[in-house]
C-alpha cells in the first residue's frame, strides 16, 4: 500500500528491484529509507528520488547487525523521517 507522507524502509534498496521500489514509492509521496549492505550505493540510490523532489535517505545496513537495524529504525521513525529524509 502506498500512503503519501508515510515512511517505507526498503532493504537491499540500492540495486535492482529494491531500487525500483524505492524510486516508485518516493515518486508517489512516501518517505523512503534505502537500507543496503553496499554502504556506498545506498546514498547514491537515495539521491535520484531526492533530485526528483522525493524524500529519501540511504544508509549502510547489514540486516544481521542489530546496531545497523537500530539506525534504520531511527531514520524511519515519525519523529525523524521529515528532517532525515529531506
TrEMBL record:
Record Pfam families: adh_short (PF00106)
Domain of life: Bacteria
Record key words, sorted: Oxidoreductase
Keyword Oxidoreductase applies: yes
Keyword Iron in record: no
Family label: Belongs to the short-chain dehydrogenases/reductases (SDR) family.
Protein name: SDR family NAD(P)-dependent oxidoreductase
Source organism of this protein record: Streptomyces asiaticus subsp. ignotus
Phylogenetic lineage: Bacteria, Bacillati, Actinomycetota, Actinomycetes, Kitasatosporales
Amino acid at each position: 500500500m502506498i500512503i503519501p507522507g508515510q515512511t517505507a524502509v526498503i532493504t537491499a534498496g540500492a540495486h535492482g528491484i529494491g531500487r525500483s521500489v524505492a524510486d516508485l514509492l518516493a515518486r508517489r509521496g512516501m518517505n523512503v529509507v534505502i537500507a543496503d549492505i553496499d554502504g556506498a550505493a545506498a546514498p547514491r540510490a537515495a539521491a535520484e528520488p531526492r533530485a526528483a523532489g522525493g524524500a529519501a535517505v540511504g544508509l549502510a545496513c547489514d540486516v544481521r547487525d542489530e546496531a545497523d537495524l537500530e539506525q534504520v529504525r531511527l531514520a524511519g521513525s515519525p519523529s525523524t523521517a521529515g528532517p532525515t529524509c529531506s
